[in-house]
Write a structure and sequence with these properties.
Number of domains: 2
């Protein structure tokens, strides 16, 4: 099986020069002094966003060059000011995302501080769901956009200047903007460069020059005149065999995405899912292959959605190799509690019975187990050893596990991983 290459990322390199925050790689600035007035004029007014907010329409906004998050914050401030009643979703693309520390350094120069900060201590490549309304795409813009499915109403092109960062203004990127744009989608950018104008027009945008901000003579706005093909909605519900943790989680995610799902099985005797508490944890393995990527992506995906459930899990680090992995090979946020004990704040323990009850209240649940595969429609087999009854000739083997109930002299404040697992 061929696996897609993971998105790669280069860290941002900032230089603070008086009232400017400069990207050392391109010699261009993120902003000069504050930048709020220029951002409002070029992007919020130039794209027609303010009128759309007043109308209360649902909106999908995309920004190439998310930077410090200034435009995103100003959009949210404009929503609050007009009492916006629709739903806004924001997609920010950034090739060199700021770490939390870099964002604090940059935003400290503003007379009005930003209230948005990166969701993690270290930026990572790929898709990062920072909140229900904000999706960040970290990595090469054309590559990241090619993996996205969306219908965008407004685009803000705010990368570094075309002369200093031509990779952010390529025909491949313009083609992706067109693919993802709804008919009539609006676009605004600070530049009026001829190559940018011609590239947008070749991709199906009708461009207009508008008076620029301050000393800039002009900037571009545009409207997409091409066609957009919406992603087809699933014709059949998603059938899930198995109501353990995997099946429950998948049913909940399908519901969030608007895909009807039917969950089969009680889940009460679901092998590993029958434990009273489950641990959602991260441990650097050094595995850079597909399985290692899957585990890492799974942990990040959970932490994106469970930002308020940062209970923390401790791990004993017993050898130098493992410590090196924690220090050098992982971008998972962690804290050294002692010389041999590390804590992952985003890791957590899960009350499996409470989780099961909560999910079953929200999804279409059929207690009876699936006895045969349906003739049509997508099916997910998450029934553990029970999967063998649905697929003839499938050889499965159970891994033995054990759980013990202990009484401790002192309460355990955090779950502990020491080769075995100790959960309060």
């Amino acid at each position: 099986m061929a696996f897609p290459k993971p998105l790669k990322i280069d860290p941002a390199r900032l230089v603070v020069d008086d009232d400017k925050v400069i990207d050392a790689a391109h010699g261009d600035w993120y902003f000069q002094y504050d930048g709020r007035d220029e951002t409002r004029y070029v992007f919020l007014e130039g794209s027609g966003l303010l009128a759309l907010l007043d109308a209360g329409e649902d909106l999908v906004i995309g920004e190439i060059g998310f930077g410090t998050g200034l435009t995103y914050q100003l959009v949210r401030e404009a929503m609050a000011a007009c009492g916006y009643q629709g739903r806004m979703r924001y997609i920010g693309v950034e090739g060199r995302p700021l770490s939390a520390e870099q964002a604090r350094t940059a935003n400290a120069l503003r007379p009005e501080p930003l209230h948005w900060h990166p969701p993690s201590k270290r930026p990572r490549a790929g898709f990062v769901r920072a909140s229900d309304e904000l999706l960040l795409l970290h990595g090469d813009a054309a590559d990241a956009l090619s993996r996205l499915s969306a219908g965008v109403d407004l685009w803000f092109l705010d990368g570094f200047s075309p002369a200093k960062n031509p990779d952010a203004w390529t025909p491949e990127i313009f083609a992706q903007l067109a693919r993802l744009s709804r008919p009539g989608a609006r676009l605004a950018t600070f530049t009026a460069a001829g190559d940018v104008r011609r590239g947008l027009e070749s991709a199906g945008f009708e461009t207009t020059k508008r008076s620029g901000w301050a000393k800039k003579r002009e900037h571009l706005t545009a409207r997409f005149e091409g066609t957009w093909t919406a992603r087809p909605q699933p014709a059949s519900p998603l059938i899930i065999a198995g109501a353990g943790i995997a099946g429950l989680t998948l049913a909940l995610e399908a519901r969030r995405l608007g895909w009807p799902a039917i969950l089969h099985g009680t889940g009460e005797a679901a092998q590993g899912s029958a434990v009273p508490r489950a641990l959602v944890n991260y441990r650097p393995s050094g595995d850079v292959g597909p399985l290692g990527q899957l585990r890492r992506a799974g942990f990040f995906h959970l932490s994106d959605y469970a930002a308020n459930a940062r209970f923390g899990v401790d791990a004993l680090v017993s050898d130098a190799k493992l410590r090196h992995r924690w220090d050098s090979e992982t971008d998972v946020e962690h804290q050294w509690i002692t010389a041999d004990r590390v804590r992952v704040p985003a890791a957590l323990s899960l009350d499996t019975a409470a989780f099961r009850a909560r999910v079953l209240e929200q999804v279409d649940h059929r207690p009876e187990s699936l006895t045969k595969l349906p003739d049509v429609g997508p099916v997910v087999l998450a029934a553990g050893l029970g999967t063998a009854a649905l697929l003839e000739g499938l050889s499965l083997r159970a891994n033995r596990g054990q759980q013990d109930l202990l009484s401790l002299d002192q309460p355990l404040t955090h779950p502990l991983n020491f080769g075995r697992l100790l959960l309060p």
